[in-house]
Design the sequence.
């Protein structure tokens, strides 16, 4: 049996401020760092030998993985960073407070922006300091690959090809991926064959490892969150 461990980064500064973050490269809060360390402790209890380590380009996911590996006493020199695992780009909503946006657009429209399968917010201006082309960490990404806005469907269409090309053939090994709410929603949609309607109900908690067990044929046998006190329904198992 092999294991795929998915971890949404710990609470970020903009999670705390209820801002749409997307591709903006923000830090973890002190609580987010504690969540990451707790994730490491929970994973440590499994007594697994981890073989592969993946995360997005974004420092909140990088720092989460670093803290997990530090807790496990594993050197992080084998970490593979992939921009394809980045959070969904929230377009013109980036940097706005979610409660304030609700007042402007209404609760239902904001829920549609956040949870729907194929609705994109308006594009973010390339002149914005929050646009990825103006953020140094993304300088080596081809400009034509950098989005101005994305739906969950758009996020899926970059996450899943990367997963299929680089990770799926390694599912006979133990793998950890630290990423983001929407990039992990996209991956769960693929792995658990969640339809377009049900995916809107899937929420990925911060700093709570989701462990997926595979049989020898690389078929999912079971899945569960390690911190049961903060476990959200997977709507599959």
Sequence:
């Amino acid at each position: 049996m092999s294991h795929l461990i998915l971890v949404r980064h710990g609470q970020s500064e903009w999670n705390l401020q209820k801002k749409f973050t997307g591709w903006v490269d923000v830090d973890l809060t002190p609580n987010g760092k504690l969540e990451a360390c707790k994730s490491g402790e929970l994973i440590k209890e499994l007594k697994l030998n981890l073989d592969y380590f993946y995360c997005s380009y974004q420092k909140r996911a990088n720092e989460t993985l670093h803290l997990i590996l530090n807790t496990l006493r594993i050197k992080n020199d084998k970490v593979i960073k992939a921009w394809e695992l980045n959070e969904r780009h929230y377009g013109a909503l980036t940097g706005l407070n979610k409660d304030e946006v609700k007042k402007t657009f209404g609760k239902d429209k904001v829920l549609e922006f956040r949870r729907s399968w194929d609705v994109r917010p308006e594009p973010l201006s390339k002149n914005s300091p929050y646009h990825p082309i103006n953020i140094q960490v993304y300088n080596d990404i081809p400009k034509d690959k950098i989005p101005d806005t994305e739906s969950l469907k758009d996020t899926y269409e970059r996450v899943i090809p990367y997963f299929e090309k680089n990770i799926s053939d390694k599912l006979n090994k133990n793998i950890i991926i630290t990423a983001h709410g929407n990039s992990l929603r996209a991956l769960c949609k693929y792995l658990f064959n969640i339809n377009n309607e049900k995916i809107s109900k899937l929420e990925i908690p911060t700093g709570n490892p989701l462990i997926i067990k595979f049989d020898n044929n690389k078929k999912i046998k079971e899945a569960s969150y390690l911190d049961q006190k903060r476990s959200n329904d997977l709507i599959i198992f």
The CA atoms of residues 83 and 228 lie 30 Å apart. The longest strand covers residues 2-8.
